[in-house]
Amino acid sequence: MKVFSTYLRKGTAFRYPKHYFRKEPLWAQEVTEVVENRYVLLRQRVSVLSKIRRALAEYERFVNQCYSQGEKS
User: Fold this and answer.
1) Is 38 helix (H, G, I), strand (E, B) or coil?
2) In angstroms, rounded to a whole number, what is the distance separating the alpha carbons of residues 55 and 58?
3) Which residue, of 16, 27, 62, 67, is most buried by count of CB atoms within 10 Å of its CB?
4) What is the pLDDT of residue 7?
5) Would you list the domain boundaries of the chain?
6) Tens digit of pLDDT for each residue in 9-23?
7) Over the stretch 20-48, which tens digit does the pLDDT of each residue have?
8) CB 51 within 8 A of CB 58
9) Is 44 helix (H, G, I), strand (E, B) or coil?
10) Over the stretch 48-57, which tens digit does the pLDDT of each residue have?
């Protein structure tokens, strides 16, 4: 099975720029806008959860470091 697609760079924002879709029919632009409005919220949630995960991993490393130093004393 062959997949025909074009890679689109998202950049630094949480949504794809509208100008990527300017050559599409008006109905497709409208659908894309609705879908992007929903996906932007999901992308923001994923970003926040990733930050929380990194913070928890950093905290765990810190706690483990504290306990390993306590054993040496």
Assistant:
1) helix
2) 5
3) 16
4) 86
5) 25-72
6) 887 789 998 899 999
7) 999 999 999 999 999 999 999 999 999 99
8) no
9) helix
10) 999 999 999 9
